[in-house]
Specification:
It comes from Candidatus Yanofskybacteria bacterium RIFCSPHIGHO2_02_FULL_38_22b. The chain crosses the membrane at residues 5-23, 29-50, 62-89, 109-129. This is Membrane-spanning protein. It holds the Pfam family DUF2238. Keywords: Membrane, Transmembrane, Transmembrane helix. The chain contains 6 helices and no strands. The chain has helices spanning 2-20, 23-26, 28-49, 59-87, 89-96, 106-129. It has one domain. It is mostly helical and 135 residues long. The protein starts with a helix and ends in a 6-residue tail after the last helix. The chain is 79% helix and 0% strand. The longest helix has 29 residues, at 59-87.
Length: 135
């Protein structure tokens, strides 16, 4: 769980220079990679956190629980982006001289959530088919 938490903090911290330097506007793939990584590491964190509640051999149920938890985190993140977009753009520009960009349109939000789900499914597939853990 510690590795997943550190990775999630790293993904979050990469957002800071990405916003400051406008990387999201310059390179679309940064958003894709960060959402994929976020989904991957949220699934890793949730699988470890919920390991006592997951049932060995019932991989469909376990997938639904972990992917559902990952989707929940992704939706909360998108709400946070929306709220930041509504409230923080002006203060960021006034205080730091940064023209912040927190979220795109509906298609961008759907694609972000899709990348969160895809990251979670890749993590779960790797865990399922590895010899280290029977999910």
């Amino acid at each position: 769980m510690r590795k997943a938490f550190i990775a999630l903090v790293a993904v979050f911290l990469i957002n800071i220079p990405s916003l400051y330097y406008g990387w999201y506007l310059k390179w679309d793939w940064i958003d894709v990679i960060l959402h994929f990584a976020g989904g991957f590491f949220v699934a890793m964190f949730m699988a470890d956190y919920l390991k006592d509640r997951l049932v060995s051999g019932q991989w469909i149920k376990n997938y639904l629980i972990v992917v559902g938890a990952t989707i929940f985190v992704g939706v909360v993140w998108e709400f946070a982006e929306f709220i930041a977009n509504q409230t923080l753009i002006e203060p960021f520009y006034r205080w730091f001289g940064v023209k912040a960009y927190f979220m795109g349109d509906l298609a961008d939000t759907m694609y972000d959530l899709l990348m969160d789900i895809f990251g979670a499914l890749v993590y779960l597939s790797l865990v399922t088919f590895s010899k280290h853990r029977n999910f």
